[in-house]
């Protein structure tokens, strides 16, 4: 252990120290990539926050939607291919069958006799197509 004894009569003289030269930070290629990735993540995070705040809110209501579907009732021996060919003979049946499967959320392309099949609205004027109201009226009349 060392001790320093100060005399009350001695004078203090400040010692001047030279300032250390400013160190320049040098980044390697990997360092620049890390800082670039951090900056990109920061900007993406800020944009996500702004988008979340500025996005319009969804409004839920108890009223039923105004969407109305038109239906074709499958006859015995009918298939989606035959229904598609009947609805639009000039179109490729594969496209219309795919659209009907998606619209009705069917697992396959099989249909049963009497099954109501929703069709795209552009075919609402085709022969054999009925509205949802007409279909429900026919089903109620058949039940009695």
Automatic annotation (TrEMBL):
InterPro entries, A to Z: LysM, LysM_dom_sf
Claim: Transmembrane helix is one of the keywords in the record: yes
Residue stretches making up the LysM domain: 70-119
Membrane-traversing stretches: 33-55
Record key words, sorted: Membrane, Transmembrane, Transmembrane helix
Keyword Transmembrane helix set for record: yes
Coiled coil: none
Protein name: LysM peptidoglycan-binding domain-containing protein
């Amino acid at each position: 252990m060392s001790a320093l004894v100060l005399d009350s009569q001695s004078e203090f003289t400040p010692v001047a120290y030279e300032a250390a030269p400013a160190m320049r930070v040098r980044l390697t290629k990997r360092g620049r990539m890390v800082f670039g990735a951090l900056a990109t993540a920061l900007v993406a995070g800020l944009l996500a926050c702004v988008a979340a705040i500025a996005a319009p809110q969804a409004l839920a209501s108890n009223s039923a939607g105004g969407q109305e579907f038109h239906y074709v009732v499958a006859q015995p021996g009918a298939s989606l291919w035959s229904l598609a060919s009947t609805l639009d003979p000039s179109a490729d049946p594969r496209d219309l069958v795919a659209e009907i499967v998606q619209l009705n959320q069917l697992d396959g392309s099989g249909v049963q006799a009497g099954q109501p099949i929703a069709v795209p609205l552009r075919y609402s004027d085709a022969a054999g197509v009925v509205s949802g109201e007409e279909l429900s009226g026919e089903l109620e009349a058949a039940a009695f």
